[in-house]
């Protein structure tokens, strides 16, 4: 449970949300704008001043998990340091956590090894997000928290990055909590799609995605995929125009 | 890039020279540029020594004033209550004319460099304080969240994020504070008259040696230009990543 207090009054952003992400599971969080997805993610990362006692990350409080550096964070705005090269941006994680990081290997894993010496200002939005992903994975976190990481990208880069993330995840099997506005993206990537409703945020559905792995973009045209998309859309309220968030 | 302003300067000097020669303007009112050059060449040692002393006062004051301001800014950027407590005092320092405080400082600290450095420090303090507080706060929230999610310490966030975010603001403050530090140095040298360009101006003024006075003004202008150009150079080298340098 989390409330935002401000001059305009307090907003109860979350209400009795209980969400478990299993080890190595990919869980997406979808819901209308303002339903509290970002709040939930930031609470899990231990970034909110109020500390809901009920929130657990691998059985511990978010603050304890944060102290152990079990999490990596990727947000819609990549938040890279513009004065550092790509390689140095990834090295930032090892500077902070003290963990040994093979920067070159990480860059290769997200497909930007050729841009190691570039600065963020010289990269496209898609490449910047790859750097942010490499940076968040550098200390081998058990839980990757992603808040609309591809939300600001064009459709083509977005598909590239979905695929890239699928490949990385299918190899490493890190737990992922992934916030998105795209139902199709959620279904394509996830083991489970959790649907939230607004004010205050509550979980209204938890849809298991049993499509086989490895997954491919072509799966989007399969009937099983379409069926899952409709299930999630129905949980979101169904009344919304088809295609809006696909 | 240097050529157009240089041409403009030459045009101004030529017009000035011609005006003085043709209209036969009295030398004590407005000396010709050539007369100023002669005055400078006549006593190079005097002007160089004056420049050295004034530069020492100005840079000393700049270091003390902006240094103290930065340290205070670090404190204020980390604590809103402390910011609210300190800010009114800082404004008090800002709105009090240094010219009014300088005689007091001379009474307290006597002759010698201390009161001059303090006057230059007072006058450079506020621009750095305000800019540094803003700069240290101007961090990218996503980068901040990322570092906090990694459990980065305040210390790490300061040295890896805040200081860099503040750099453009700090350099902008230096651009403002450098000419101010020269003002502080010269004003306090006027008052105690024991060396520096301020004293040269005072003496030449008393002797109606307007050419010498213009010589002193020229030396100060050159110092100001060189120091500002130095900051601009550092800005270009250090802030290549900042949008302010995109057009350079
Ligand atoms: N810093 C804040 N101060 C006050 N209220 C906030 C703050 N951040 C979020 N809220 C409120 O909390 C609720 C949930 O916000 P949140 O950002 O978690 O939603 P979201 O699901 O991530 O939305 P979106 O899909 O648009 O990103 C909203 O009603 C919002 O107005
Ligand atoms: Mg959000």
Give a structural overview.
The complex is a heterodimer of chains A (246) and B (248). By secondary structure, chain A is of the alpha/beta class. Chain A has 2 domains: 11-70 and 142-246, 3-Layer(aba) Sandwich (Rossmann fold), CATH 3.40.50; 80-140, no CATH class. Chain A is 34% helix and 18% strand. Chain A contains 8 helices and 8 strands, in the order E-E-E-H-H-E-H-H-H-E-H-E-H-E-E-H. Chain A has helices at residues 37-44, 62-67, 86-97, 103-109, 125-137, 155-172, 183-189, 223-235, and strands spanning 2-6, 9-14, 26-30, 71-75, 143-147, 175-179, 192-197, 202-208. In chain A, the strands form 2 sheets. In chain A, strands 4-5-6-3-7-8 form a 6-stranded mixed β-sheet, with helices on both faces. Chain A starts with a strand and ends in an 11-residue tail after the last helix. Mean pLDDT of chain A is 87; it is low at 5-10 and 238-246. The longest helix of chain B has 39 residues, at 154-192. In chain B, helix 4 (80-95) crosses helix 6. Chain B has 10 helices and no strands. The model of chain B has no long low-confidence stretch (mean pLDDT 93). Classes of the chains: A alpha/beta (246), B mainly alpha (248). The A-B interface holds A 42, 45-47, 66-69, 71-73, 75-83, 92-93, 95-97, 119-121, 132, 135-136, 139, 145 and B 140-152, 156, 160-161, 164, 240-242. The site of adenosine-5'-triphosphate (ATP) has 12 residues of chain A, from strand 1, strand 2 and helix 1. Residues 4, 6, 11, 13, 31, 33-39 of chain A line the site of adenosine-5'-triphosphate.
């Amino acid at each position: 449970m989390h409330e935002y207090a401000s001059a305009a009054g307090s907003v109860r952003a979350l209400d009795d949300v209980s969400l478990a992400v299993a080890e190595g599971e990919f869980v997406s969080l979808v819901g209308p704008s303002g339903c509290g997805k970002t709040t939930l993610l930031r609470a899990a990362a231990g970034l909110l001043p109020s500390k809901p006692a009920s929130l657990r990350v691998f059985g511990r409080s978010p603050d304890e998990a944060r102290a152990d550096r079990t999490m990596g964070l990727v947000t819609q705005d990549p938040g890279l340091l513009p004065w550092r090269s790509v390689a140095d941006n990834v090295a930032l994680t090892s500077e902070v956590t003290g963990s040994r990081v093979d920067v070159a290997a990480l860059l290769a894993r997200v497909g930007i090894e050729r841009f190691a010496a570039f600065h963020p200002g010289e990269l496209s939005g898609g490449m910047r997000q790859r750097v942010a992903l490499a940076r968040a994975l550098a200390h081998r976190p058990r839980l990757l928290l992603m808040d609309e990481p591809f939300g600001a990208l064009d459709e083509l880069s977005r598909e590239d990055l979905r695929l890239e993330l699928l490949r990385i995840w299918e190899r490493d099997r890190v737990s992922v909590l992934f916030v998105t506005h795209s139902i199709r993206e959620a279904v394509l990537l996830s083991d489970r799609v959790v649907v939230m409703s607004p004010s205050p945020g509550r979980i209204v559905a938890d849809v298991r995605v049993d499509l086989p792995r490895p997954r491919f973009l072509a799966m989007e045209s399969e009937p099983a995929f379409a069926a899952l998309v409709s299930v999630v859309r129905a949980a979101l309220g169904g009344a919304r125009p088809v295609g809006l968030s696909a | 890039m240097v050529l157009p302003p240089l041409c403009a300067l030459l045009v101004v000097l030529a017009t000035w020279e011609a005006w003085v020669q043709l209209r036969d303007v009295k030398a004590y009112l407005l000396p010709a540029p050539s007369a100023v050059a002669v005055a400078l060449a006549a006593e190079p040692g005097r002007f160089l020594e004056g420049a050295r002393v004034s530069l020492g006062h100005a840079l000393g004051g700049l270091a003390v004033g902006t240094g103290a301001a930065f340290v205070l800014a670090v404190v204020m950027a980390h604590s809103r209550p402390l910011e609210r407590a300190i800010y009114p005092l800082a404004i008090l320092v800002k709105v009090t004319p240094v010219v009014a405080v300088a005689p007091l400082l001379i009474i307290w600290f006597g002759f010698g460099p201390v009161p001059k450095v303090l006057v230059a420090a007072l006058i450079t303090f506020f621009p750095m304080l305000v800019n540094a507080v803003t700069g240290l706060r101007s961090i990218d929230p996503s980068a901040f969240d990322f570092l906090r999610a990694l459990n980065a310490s305040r210390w790490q966030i300061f040295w890896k994020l805040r200081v860099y975010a503040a750099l453009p603001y700090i350099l902008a403050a230096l651009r403002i504070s450098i000419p101010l530090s020269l003002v502080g140095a010269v004003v306090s040298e006027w008052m105690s008259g024991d060396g520096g360009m301020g004293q040269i101006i005072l003496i030449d003024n008393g002797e109606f040696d307007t050419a010498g006075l213009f010589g002193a003004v020229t030396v100060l202008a050159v110092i100001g230009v060189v120091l500002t150009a130095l900051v601009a150079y550092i800005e270009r080298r250090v802030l290549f990543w900042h949008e302010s340098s995109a057009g350079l």
